[in-house]
Amino acid sequence: QVQVVESGGDLVQPGGSLRLSCTAHGLTLYYFAVAWFRQAPGKEREGLSCISNDFTDTYYADSVKDRFSISRDSTKNAVYLQMNSLKPEDTAVYYCAARGINPYYTENFNYSSPSEYDYWGQGTQVTVSS
User: Fold this and answer.
1) Cβ distance 57 to 51 under 8 Å?
2) pLDDT exceeds 90 at position 44
3) I need a surface site. Which of 18, 76, 97, 116 has the fewest CB within 10 A?
4) CA-based angle 98:120:78, to the nearest 5?
5) Which residues of 5-23 are buried (b: 16+ CB within 10 A; e: fewer)?
6) What is the CA radius of gyration of the chain?
7) What is the C-alpha to C-alpha distance for residues 20 and 83, in angstroms, rounded to an integer?
8) Which pLDDT band, with edges at 50, 70 and 90, does 54 fall under?
């Protein structure tokens, strides 16, 4: 059974940094594109970033592209989201999702659409507040 697990969420002050981790059981993340999403109360789930299985492609939302960085460590079956210069508006539950096909890219692929991904974690809470 596939299980995707996020970790690293915490309470942090504005301007601070966090690194979120995504790991999986029963799924080798190395073979699949992996994305990070977030969802704040009362808002839609927002696609933040995606990394291809072969490291060649990364995608970022305009709202985070100068502050967040996605990476992966194939030896640890993990994908990370480094978040710097955090703002109160970054407060949300952050989710990791894996796209269950390889190659990942298909016509009209939209990295920020939740429907493109097949495996989801339960989320980790990030709160940015003084």
Assistant:
1) yes
2) yes
3) 76
4) 55
5) ebebbeebeeeeebebbbb
6) 14
7) 8
8) confident
What are the tens digits of pLDDT across the range 23-37?
A: 999 999 989 999 999
Q: In the prediction, which pLDDT does 100 show?
A: 87
Name which of 59, 49, 129, 58 is nearest 97 in CA terms: 49
Q: Of the candidates 53, 50, 45, 71, which has an alpha carbon nearest to the alpha carbon of residue 61?
A: 50
Q: Peptide bond preceding 103: is omega within 30 degrees of 0, i.e. cis?
A: yes
How far is it, in rounded angstroms, from Cα 70 to Cα 124? Answer: 16
Model pLDDT for residues 57-98, shown as the tens digit of each residue: 999 999 999 999 999 998 999 999 999 999 999 999 999 999
95: nearest Cα among 51, 30, 42, 35: 35
- The residue-averaged pLDDT of 49-57 equals 89
N-to-C CA span, the chain: 40
CB 28 within 8 A of CB 9: no
